[in-house]
């Protein structure tokens, strides 16, 4: 899953597991590719921010209720609450895809999502001369041994292959969204219709693309199919009916299974040289790869700004406002526990962190923190008999799911004796359990000492 909960902020981008989103309450969708919508469905029930075009696709394809979709105009700054300003920028990846520029007490963060850099991005007024504290970068092709031509050059390669096969029909493998302009350019170049399926034609009209698509078989000799159809057996069956070649536009290495399959290096992700040019121009304080497992930061060290980055604001985030009905229901039910795990185990107090040197690539990632969906007491010290957090101690052994190296794992032992509210202020329990002790000490030493003294009494 390509998604991130940004540490020190209330922001989650392309991340749709609410239980693992920690304190995130502002959810953003960069574009509609399936690897960025894992977990997003018709049951989604929180405000979701995206571009207007993505908003239309989102409701059509995933049936997310329109009451939760908040389209934001591209190129304009939007203030969300009192703490975050966001500006959407075209990411040149697929229809509706955007980058997010976040500003707040946490500093300035640019999240590229999937993007294909072009020099015209340097003309964006909101980016020119802007100090960027953290750059979340699409590192799909972040490798010096993986050069890519421009999309225009790749389109010329496709046209050349078609010209060298004048008696063949042409089948082009594409995903459900993306590479539409390749199809348009080839249709215009060869003055032919592009035959597509009915659902794809409906989408092309939704995207307001040029009228070069049709569902009528035989109306044109270029056909767009799902990329999964480009394989040995389909090529054999197509060529039994009529000489056919297949064009596979992709920036990734592929195994060719039939002599009539022609890959072309057409990619909607930035090449390595384009990434270097982008980072060199932007001069961020730090680069964080979006695709997990990549080792790309070393390539950009010489381009980083020497200015000190803004530190994440680790103050307790404001809770999401409850409706009147929710407040009434909560008051009737009495105290509930937000922390169900680790309260009955003899494990070290505080927070256990893995070494950042061991996993430098993952240190910025904040994943794997689950918020229980069942009813538990809000106090970390529940004394109510019959409460579900007292039953089935084996449930307390549940581990954090999806945890990544370098992510905090909360572990604590708690005395069963009553602890008064003066030693444990409401709303601070989860924050202090999930925040490094040295950062808490720096940001709020008096409050921290007060809590620690209260635990030790």
From TrEMBL:
Record keyword Nucleus present: yes
GO term, biological process aspect, one: telomere maintenance via telomere lengthening
Chain segments annotated as coiled-coil in the UniProt record: none
Keyword Membrane: no
Taxonomy, superkingdom: Eukaryota
Entry's EC annotation: 3.5.2.6
Main location: nucleus
Keyword list, A-Z: Chromosome, DNA damage, DNA repair, Exonuclease, Hydrolase, Nuclease, Nucleus, Telomere
SUPFAM superfamilies: Metallo-hydrolase/oxidoreductase
GO cellular component annotations of the record: centrosome; chromosome, telomeric region; nuclear body
UniProt xrefs under InterPro entries: DRMBL, Metallo-B-lactamas, RibonucZ/Hydroxyglut_hydro
Subcellular location: Chromosome, Telomere; Nucleus
GO molecular function terms noted in the UniProt entry: 5'-3' DNA exonuclease activity; beta-lactamase activity; damaged DNA binding; protein homodimerization activity; protein-containing complex binding
CDD domains: SNM1A-1C-like_MBL-fold (cd16273)
Reaction equations catalysed: a beta-lactam + H2O = a substituted beta-amino acid
Annotated Pfam families: DRMBL, Lactamase_B_2
Domain Metallo-beta-lactamase: 1-165
Family statement drawn from the similarity comment of this UniProt entry: Belongs to the DNA repair metallo-beta-lactamase (DRMBL) family.
Name of the protein described by the UniProt record: 5' exonuclease Apollo
Protein's organism: Strigops habroptila
